[in-house]
Amino acid sequence: MRLALTPAVEAAVTVDLASSSLRELNAALHKLAPDTTEAYWKIANPAGRHALAAGLDAPVTVEIDGPVGYYCAGMNKQARVIVNGNAGVGVGENMMSGFIHVKGDASQSAGATGNGGLLVIDGNASARCGISMKGIDIVVKGSVGHLSAFMGQAGTLTVLGDAGEALGDSLYEAKLFVRGSVAGLGADCVEKEMREEHKALLAAKLEAAGLLGAVDIGEFRRYGSARTLYHFHVDNVSNY
Amino acid sequence: MTDMTNTPRTKPRLSATFDEYTLSEIRRAAATGIYDIRGAGAKRKLPHFDDLLFLGASMSRYPLEGYREKCSTEVLLGTRFAKKPIALKIPITIAGMSFGSLSANAKEALGRGASAMGTSTTTGDGGMTNEERGHSQTLVYQYLPSRYGMNPDDLKRADAIEVVVGQGAKPGGGGMLLGQKITERVAKMRTLPVGIDQRSACRHPDWTGPDDLEIKIEELREITDWEKPIYVKVGAARPYYDTALAVKSGADVVVVDGMQGGTAATQEVFIENVGIPTIAAVHQAVKALQDLGMHRKVQLIVSGGIRNGADVAKALALGADAVAIGTAALVALGDNDPRYQADYEALGTTAGAYDDWHEGRDPAGITTQDPELMKRLDPVAAGRRLANYLAVLTLECQTIARACGKSHVHNLEPEDLAALTIEAAAMANVPLAGTDWIPGRNGRF
User: Fold this and answer.
1) What CATH number should be reported for the domain holding residue B406?
2) How far is B376 from B347, CA to CA, in rounded Å?
3) Can you tell which superkingdom this protein's organism belongs to (chain B) (predicted)?
4) Residues of B whose CB is below 8 A from A134
5) Residue to test with chain A: of B141, B157, B191, most A Cβ within 10 A
6) How many Cβ atoms from other residues are within 10 Å of residue B3's Cβ?
7) What element of type H or E holds B283?
């Protein structure tokens, strides 16, 4: 079957999911060569479909006009994915590189286990944002839910709003910046001094998200691992 | 026994409840304040395949000639949805064991041995190594809760993907690789600092139940263009329902791991007290597939304490499509070899009982990251030993199948079995030997 493609302005490839299937779209995106000239894709009528634009591995832009379901842009490499709507569970899960921009809210486990790249969420993210993150940078303009960055191993989570309960529980080396209130810190997560290198790091992440100058870096507080749970010990039994 | 006054005295009697092992464990716990962590599977005596017997052909069945008439062993896995099902020459696969837990030489040897016999190996918690991919003709990539080393490139390099929900040694449990095994390479693969204890989560981070798993599997299929079979592995606890839900979630293959299945490092109390024996799990898993009309359409792999060709044949007769071996494969490589007895004694144990795999001091060079110990394992020779062992398992299974009149090992059936004990008869749903009585036949399972 052929994709229902229509020529669009500025050489964008437009795919209407009301008439093309998700499988056809993903298959076409997976076939893109690194030097493809089809570098801008516009997706209409996503209607909350799952696994939309999952497994991309090309330097292209995929702009989705509407809400997406679970695992949008999962395991993304290289690509820019823009969601003009809300995203379901696990947007950008295990992302390796590239950029994902959700212009609405995101559900649970946004950026879960992400290894690299940047995930920006204009609205709020739900529980477990950045769970087991492994190097991804996540910027949430709104607030994040409970257990965000749970077992976060590497990367940064920047929250312009508030954080829910048990932020950074069992954290490893991920770095957390929160501008608003924190309902509670998880086991082994502590507030840390915001030194100049951390301000510079935060500034870099905000700049990448297009927010440098839009918010005062001085309003953020930094959280990280106390590293007391790095080795199993009976004295820490209350934390296990 | 008498004392100086000739008063009879009773012989000292150790408690069956507080036996020597139990007493030593209480003392160890009191001294350390920490539960015992070890590798391997359950060591207590459990109902097992030994409690089943085959009913060889006599008058009512017609046997096949050994060494003359063919008894096929090939198996096709992942025929439900995958564009590229896996074709194995023998119904015996190598279970998932991680690089990190095992040395690179051990992983290479597993790949060499399995490939020589036309079967598959499986990665583990910690990702895929080039050595493993390079030496494994067919490689199953485990998709684990920790997602250590998970990346789409390796997903695409794999021949199948195994979503690990549970493990026989610890259904419902995560894991911990102690810091002494976390070398620079292992740490880099797991995105964590060198030398810390590395926890493996017990839950997947981005799905919580079968409805979510269905969507997760759809994502994995989309990423890999629906080419690769998707396995779902569960630890045997409620295998009827877990198998049914795995099928509902879209699995091509269900892997059921009984409580004799091994682990790299888990609490002893967990290994010995959680889950159900393999023999009890097979029938329930098969029943679930049959009830759904999916038996042989969704393939079933059974693991947990498989040791010889009779175990293989019994699992297949109960309805499995293939088995997986872990601990037995390590023994074939050279694990717990008596030639290292002096080293085992220095570690306070003996050959055959060494299970502190998490400590990284394995004298056989298998469950270690110590470069000097690793040198003890020649991957070529060890691979050859594994291939020999797999060949023996296959020959033994064929021998039994021929005796039951089967031209393919998959033609073995429950009717070919009888049980030695009431417990085994009830668990495996086969008659007690010499009777036609299956305990609980009118029960639910």
Assistant:
1) 3.20.20.70
2) 17
3) Bacteria
4) 147, 191
5) B191
6) 8
7) helix B278-291
The boundaries of the domain holding residue A227 are 5-239
Give the CA count within 13 Å in the CB-facing half-sphere of B5: 2
Q: How far apart are CA A124 and CA A121, in angstroms?
A: 7
Looking at the DSSP bridge assignments, the partners of residue A137 are: A118, A156
Is residue B11 in some structural domain? Answer: no
The arrangement of strands across the sheet holding B322-325 comes to: B92-94, B322-325, B299-303, B253-257, B230-235, B160-164, B138-143, B120-122
Our count of domains for chain B comes to: 1
Q: Judge contact between A208 and A239, C-beta under 8 A.
A: no
Which residues have CB under 8 Å from A37's CB, separation 6+? A11
Q: Tell me the H-state helices in B191-257.
A: 210-223, 239-248
How many domains are contained in chain A?
1
- Give dist(CA B96, CA B94) in Å, integer: 7
How far is B415 from A55, CA to CA, in rounded Å?
Answer: 47
How much is the average pLDDT of B379-401? Answer: 98
Q: From the CA of A156, how many Å to the nearest CA of chain B?
A: 14
User: Residue B325 in contact with residue B306, Cβ under 8 Å?
Assistant: yes
Q: Please report, for the domain that includes residue A71, its CATH number.
A: 2.160.20.60
Please report where in the chains the tokens 């927010």 appear, as a residue.
A211
Torsion region of A22: left, alpha or beta (phi above 0 gives left; psi -120 to 50 gives alpha): alpha
- A 10 A CB-CB count for B311 gives 26
Q: How many CB atoms lie within 10 A of CB A226?
A: 15
* Rounded-to-10 torsion of CA A152, A157, A161, A164: 0
Q: Which domain holds residue B268?
A: 54-334+377-428
Start-to-end Cα distance in chain A: 54
Domain assignment present for residue B17? The answer is no
> Which residues in chain A have Cβ-Cβ distances shorter than 8 Å to B197?
230-232
Tell me the nearest-neighbour CA distance from B136 into chain A, angstroms: 25
Cβ <8 Å between B155 and A231: no
Helices then strands, each counted (H, E), chain A: 2, 12
User: Which tens digit of pLDDT belongs to each residue from A29-70?
Assistant: 999 999 999 999 999 999 999 999 999 999 999 999 999 999
Q: Do the domain assignments include residue B112?
A: yes
Question: Does residue B433 lie in a domain region?
Answer: no
ipTM score of complex: 0.94
Cα A167 to Cα A98, A131, A226, B66, B197: the distances in Å are 26, 10, 13, 65, 21
pLDDT classification of B6: cutoffs 50, 70, 90: confident
Is the CB of residue A172 less than 8 Å away from at least one CB of chain B? yes
Which pTM value belongs to this model?
A: 0.94
- A96, two tokens: 């390796």
